[in-house]
Fold these 3 entries.
Entry 1:
Amino acid sequence: MFSKSFKKLSIASRNLSTSRQNNIKVAVAGASGGIGQPLSLLLKQCPLITELSLYDIVHTPGVAADLSHIETPARVNGYMGPDQLKDSFKGADIIVIPAGVPRKPGMTRDDLFNTNASIVRDLAKAAAEVAPKACLAIISNPVNSTVPIAAEVFKKAGVFDPKKIFGVTTLDIVRANTFIAEAKQLNPLDVKVPVIGGHSGVTIIPLISQAKPSVLFTPEELKPLTVRIQEAGTEVVKAKAGAGSATLSMAYAGARFTISLIKAMKGESNIIECGFVQSDITEASFFSTPLLLGKNGIDKNLGIGELSPFEKDLLKEAIPELKKNIKKGVDFANRT
Ligand SMILES: NC(=O)c1ccc[n+]([C@@H]2O[C@H](COP(=O)([O-])OP(=O)(O)OC[C@H]3O[C@@H](n4cnc5c(N)ncnc54)[C@H](O)[C@@H]3O)[C@@H](O)[C@H]2O)c1
Ligand SMILES: O=C(O)C[C@H](O)C(=O)O
């Protein structure tokens, strides 16, 4: 009798200590927003997450109370306002940042710089202080500049690890997969298209020549398809007519990227996602490529592979714009 209950107890405590080792805390900054709320909902559904920390300058108590009733393991805590920022990030394994203003029709992503640069800088400062080993997944636009800002902040604090700061470009891949599946009548779940470069206009470079399964387009088809992928964000901004930009598809893409990071952290092999990271693959010091993810962020940058002549031209056009966007972010971080 005694030995049976002792056995039960020791199994229970073994399970508890395994689950302690397996704790994954994800913080979302901007959690009350158009992206933040559905992203937090999708993350709450992920059984691998044990703590979901929701930070925003408004409304997080309500969002957290609402999500906390969902019957999944993640404990949900809401934090509101700058006084609670560091508590929300403390101990996080991953910090996802969709904080900041979205575009309205007629605006470029770069037009968001004046507002969003300082928001990302301040969030990165807090992360560098209380969660320097966390992976950062930055969604806030302009991604081509906000990622270099966060990296500079981490460098200044002496805690920069280039394997752990990512700009989330997953939505570009999701769109490329969807549009190509539509064009070729394939199941979108079977299509995988790498999209490299950055996350705005001509810096978005879909590598359709590397699509899996392999697909063929005439030059007359390839050009408009590429432009549609590059301008898909604007397509949504126009359709929303002043009510913001992509939120639901971005929440899906952000959750996909975050859950891939978690799976890799937990030792699952062959987890590959594109991400905008510090890079020496091209002349641009930050560049998105397929990345093999591991226990500590990037295991290996998989590079750009063989480009078609059409894609080489896209790359040539993207580099000057990317370099300009990156410099703007770096200069801002060093000035302020
Ligand atoms: N990377 C991508 O592919 C991609 C896709 C879509 C949108 N975005 C970008 O994501 C950002 C957010 O878009 P959205 O539609 O969710 O906007 P939104 O306005 O609906 O939500 C933004 C949220 O950020 C919060 N916020 C503002 N300042 C903050 C601060 N200092 N700290 C914490 N939270 C703060 C706001 O209170 C709000 O809840 C925009 O910059 C948008 O351009 C990026
Ligand atoms: O287009 C935008 O402004 C938002 C986002 O970057 C997107 O690609 O949908």
Note: Residues 29-30, 32-36, 55-58, 98-103, 112, 116, 119, 139-141, 143, 168, 171, 199, 244-247, 250 surround nicotinamide-adenine-dinucleotide (ligand 1) (CB under 6 Å).
Entry 2:
Amino acid sequence: MFTNLEHLGLAVHDLEAATALYTTLLGEPPYKKEHVASEAVDTVFFQVGGSKIELLAGTSPDSAITKYLTKKPEGIHHVAFEVDDIRAEMARLRQEGFVLLNEEPKRGADNKLVCFVHPKSAAGVLVELCQSISPTDHE
Ligand SMILES: CC[C@@H](C(=O)O)C(=O)SCCNC(=O)CCNC(=O)[C@H](O)C(C)(C)COP(=O)(O)OP(=O)(O)OC[C@H]1O[C@@H](n2cnc3c(N)ncnc32)[C@H](O)[C@@H]1OP(=O)(O)O
Ligand SMILES: [Co+2]
């Protein structure tokens, strides 16, 4: 089951400048900064009610964010939904004909298991599924 709009992922060139801008915009500083080596990104998270803003900057030319920003301007890169059972939702979406970008859930930022749905199968929007896990869980 989809349970929440977990975060909006925003692709930015300059993480420090974007962090300062969003701190002013939202009136609160971020609650977390995290490097995710598997995605080659640095992230900054802001809480907004029950959802979050995730700022993302690529840390290598191979990063999906770096590649995206060579073709597109800064802005909304993906929409992330919280799910209660990521494997069940992946199986359901596959059955419905969506193209998943991961065979298995992978470790994302902020203590989540994540899986991406190709934008070409989701009306032009890159969709991320997220399931919360304990910080000590390893998959
Ligand atoms: C920090 C971890 C995690 C979290 O916990 O929150 C994250 O959020 S990580 C975020 C970064 N990681 C990812 O995005 C991983 C998933 N993405 C991918 O695998 C790829 O980016 C992609 C979506 C498969 C695209 O890669 P690729 O096919 O190599 O790029 P192209 O430039 O050739 O794009 C093909 C096609 O798709 C369109 N596109 C690409 N990205 C997006 C996007 N974010 N939103 C909408 N559309 C997108 C692109 O415009 C191309 O379309 P056409 O030009 O019409 O062919
Ligand atoms: Co994300």
Note: The chain has a mean pLDDT of 96.
Entry 3:
Amino acid sequence: MTETRAGFVALIGEPNAGKSTLLNRMVGAKVSIVTHKVQTTRARIRGIAMEGQAQIVFVDTPGLFRPRRRLDRAMVAAAWGGAADADIVVLLVEAHRGLTEGVRSILDTLKDRLPKGTRVALAINKIDRVKAETLLALSQELNAAYEFAKTFMISAEKGYGVQDLKEWLAAEVPAGPWFYPEDQIADLPMRMIAAEVTREKLTLRLHEELPYQLTVETERWEDRKDGSARIDQIVYVAREGHKGIVLGNRGETIKAVGKAAREELTEFLGRPVHLFLTVKVRPNWLEESERYNEMGLDFRDGD
Ligand SMILES: Nc1nc2c(ncn2[C@@H]2O[C@H](COP(=O)(O)OP(=O)(O)OP(=O)(O)O)[C@@H](O)[C@H]2O)c(=O)[nH]1
């Protein structure tokens, strides 16, 4: 039996570089809604891909751009947080835009901030939009600006080169046990999506009242014979007092949140959903959250 491998890979690049498209190609279509949520929740999202005996856990970071407002700074910090935790970083550069000022500033930040020894692969994306000569020149220019571990020419949209990149990542992640058992991977994205939908509805409903130490986990997911899905989730809060806020007067807040989340999930899944929400106090939430954060199972806002 071959040895198992597992590691974290951060996809970085300017906004619109194609990170979500690439992630979806490597992980599967199911995460697309999660990455769409990045824009609204500013959460760090991960998807998981298996390649042979390797488990690749992707960190899809919010777009890296020059910080202007305070919020932007928080987003950029969150993006770099993801990159610094990773075993391997993949920088996506758009073939038709080339070495832009934005890419230059990312390269500078990589030199300054990335822990020594973290390998960075270059993926020149959207190669379907340019001629071969342009590509070679661009690859040389970029490799002169940074010492990349490897250069890939890909089209995330059309799928060119994506398998090569995935196989390389699989070989590069450290040897070691998988972070997730194989049978959990299949529905993990769906569980994450479902938890994120409820989290979003809570945010919309509670605004600034929202206890910031709050997390939603999908405990159980049952696909029923009649085609519907039963989803059980737990909303964890850190204090007894927070429980009252989330429940609301006579439970009206949690009921409204559950209804809104159920409607969105029903629409997304295209079949009836029975959603059951329970609010629980978990005082040691903070310590645990670090663990969950590491595993990519948590969706708190970045600021
Ligand atoms: N022609 C072409 N278009 C692509 C390719 N990959 C991605 N795109 C398009 O580029 C646009 C941006 O792609 P996304 O995957 O959303 O980019 P992103 O990096 O996740 O963007 P942010 O979430 O804003 O950071 C979309 O319209 C994609 O369809 C490609 O290989 N070729």
Note: DSSP finds eleven helices and nine strands in the chain.
